[in-house]
Design a protein that fits this description.
The structure is a single chain. The protein is α+β, with helices and mostly antiparallel strands and about 575 residues long. The chain folds into 3 domains: about 260 residues, Alpha/Beta hydrolase fold, catalytic domain (Rossmann fold, 3-Layer(aba) Sandwich), CATH 3.40.50; about 70 residues, no CATH class; about 200 residues, Galactose-binding domain-like (Jelly Rolls). The protein contains 13 helices and 23 strands. The strands form 5 sheets. Strands 13, 14, 15, 17, 20, 22 and 23 form a 7-stranded antiparallel beta sheet that branches. A 5-stranded mixed beta sheet has the order 1-2-4-3-5, with helices on both faces. The longest helix is centred in the N-terminal third of the chain and has 15 residues. About 5% of the residues have low confidence.
Length: about 575
């Protein structure tokens, strides 16, 4: 019988010693503050770096393990990982404040090239200490994970592997703007968690910056949201929101901070781990990195619990402790040379929603995928047969004056009950023909698994601003449209356009008796639904009352392209 890999990884045998507020000098003379957690023994150990803007001090607050995220409690950024877990197993853990935050000197500008270079300098400083073997990895989720890719692209010689647990790689498409629609809700709350004391100036000439600010202030949608507008008048109130509001299109600002633009520079082993429910931020980053980086790599996508039971809670707990055994196995292999059979397993591991079962795969998308169209049909039907002549269009009117708990206007399409289990695993796309009676609008879609009793579970999502419909044909795949988002194209009111919308990756089995439901709407709402993401993510509202009309005829077919697994 093969040994369980849990019996092969480093066991806990050390106690922890701590050095607080150690200052490390960067190449430009700026001093970065760090806390160092080490085994209480002589000798050399591999080391793990955690770097973020959240403040090293809060990482060890006495919060009960597994406490859910609560933005009122400010615990969202406690994501550096459990030092005691790794240190007792023979690792050094260094937690550092990004420049301009916490106790570190300098000016903060999130994920900037300066912060990336600081990561390089910290890795090399750690490798040169008497307590280090010269082999360094990185640790932490979300922001701590995003910076890992950027530091790896700097190629510090002693960084031997990274483990990205929930790491966005595209700062425009999966952080600030979804389909070109500004996700201001996250930045509104996020800035309150960052202990920044000095901001580095944006490297934009004053005259150009003034024009960018005035252009943003002239945006009707921004004028309809005082939180965003005031950040343009007083940038110090929320610099992160300000940065994104004046950069409505993809470009150098985002490219500097986006790992996907640097994948060709990353050559060390990577492990990408994410959750099926982080459609807005981290899920696309895991797939992007896995597909884009040419190095030894692994990919795991699951749900918060690593066990076999089917759980659908949105968030892992805080302080972050989940998945540490998998991370230990990874670093034991690459930093300690312990053979736990990790690299003998297939590279991809997926939790199949709807079944609660894990499955290994060898490639993404899956080679056996049967790309299948489900057409939008008259009467709110979603079916494999194309539309018939004379089918009437569907529509809804976007209302910028919704009241709390008022249902968001939209149209719904649903299949007949499944007569056999249907699995979709992979990326999806929505191709639809539509017109507007306005010069721009937002399109948002949600795909649900509806049970026979009427209860439903959100499976995946997609977004697209009408003026951002332009495709990059060189990067577009039928199942994954790619929009450059570098300019806005005018919309002619009343004209029918074909929109190609990327739908986030998913894996789900629609069981016998269940139905698939597609909802298309023009806005989201922080009031609608109990899901956690709705409380912190909401998009800039289209402030013009706008009629959305969707067509489904032989001439103007509209359909979902789904990755059906036979």
């Amino acid at each position: 019988m093969a040994a369980d890999w849990h019996d092969l990884v480093s066991p806990p045998k050390y106690k922890v010693r701590v050095e607080k507020d150690v200052f490390i000098t960067m190449r430009d003379g700026t001093r970065i503050a760090a806390d160092i957690y080490r085994p209480d023994a002589e000798g050399e150990f591999p080391a793990l770096l955690s770097l973020s803007c959240y403040g090293k001090g809060i990482q060890k607050l006495p919060i009960p393990k597994g406490t859910p995220i609560d933005f009122r409690a400010g615990n969202a950024g406690i994501e550096a990982g459990n030092s005691e877990y790794f240190v007792t197993r023979g690792y050094v853990h260094v937690i550092a404040d990004s420049r301009g935050t916490g106790y570190s000197e300098g000016g903060y500008r999130y994920l900037s090239i300066k912060e990336q270079e600081d990561g390089y300098d910290l890795v090399e400083w750690m490798a040169g200490q008497a307590w280090c073997t010269g082999k360094v990895g990185m640790l932490g989720m979300s922001y701590f994970s995003m910076i890992q890719y950027l530091v790896a692209a700097q190629n510090p010689p002693h960084l031997k592997a990274i483990f990205s647990y929930e790491g966005t790689t595209d700062l425009y498409r999966a952080f600030g703007y979804h389909g070109g629609i500004f996700d201001f809700g996250f930045f509104f709350q996020w800035w309150h968690h960052i202990p920044a004391h000095t901001m580095a100036p944006l490297e934009i000439p004053d005259a150009k910056l003034k024009k960018m600010i005035e252009a943003a202030k002239g945006n009707r949608d921004i004028q309809g949201n005082a939180n965003v507008y005031i950040s343009l008048e007083w940038p110090d109130k929320n610099p992160i929101m300000f940065d994104h509001a004046i950069h409505p299109h993809d470009g150098p600002y985002y490219w500097e901070r986006s790992a996907y633009t640097k994948f060709d520079k990353i050559t060390i082993p990577i492990y990408c781990l994410s959750r099926w429910t982080t459609w807005l931020f981290h899920l696309p980053g895991a797939f992007s990195a896995y597909q884009g980086i040419n190095a030894p790599k692994k990919l795991t996508i699951g749900l918060p619990e690593a066990g076999e039971k089917e759980k659908y809670e949105f968030s892992v707990g805080r302080p972050w402790n989940e998945g540490h055994d998998v991370i230990l196995r990874w670093y034991d292999h690459w930093l300690k040379g312990i053979d736990t059979g990790l690299m003998d397993e297939p590279p991809i591991r997926l939790l199949i929603q709807g079944t609660g079962k894990w499955r290994y795969e060898n490639e993404w998308p899956l080679a056996r995928t049967r790309w299948t169209r489900l057409y939008l049909r008259e009467g709110g039907k979603l079916a494999e047969t194309p539309p018939a002549p004379g089918e009437e269009s569907d529509g809804f009117t976007n209302l910028p004056t919704l009241k709390p708990r008022q249902k968001v206007p939209g149209v719904e399409y649903i299949t007949e009950p499944m007569t056999q289990d249907l699995e979709i695993t992979g990326p999806s796309a929505l191709y639809f023909n539509a017109s507007l009676d306005n010069q721009d609008a937002n399109w948002m879609v949600e795909l649900f698994d509806v049970s026979p009793d009427g209860s439903r579970r959100l499976v995946t999502m997609g977004w697209l601003k009408a003026s951002h419909r332009e495709l990059d044909e060189a990067k577009t795949k039928p199942y994954q449209p790619f929009h450059p988002h570098t300019r806005s194209l005018p919309v002619e009111p009343g004209k029918i356009y074909e929109y190609a919308m990327e739908i986030r990756e998913t894996s789900n089995v629609f069981k016998v008796g269940h139905r698939m439901q597609l909802i298309i709407k023009g806005q989201d709402s922080p009031y609608e639904g109990p899901e956690h993401f709705r409380e912190i993510h909401y998009h800039l509202l289209n402030m013009e009352e706008t009629r959305h009309t969707i067509y489904h005829t032989p001439q103007y077919q509209s359909y979902l392209l789904l990755p059906v697994i036979p």
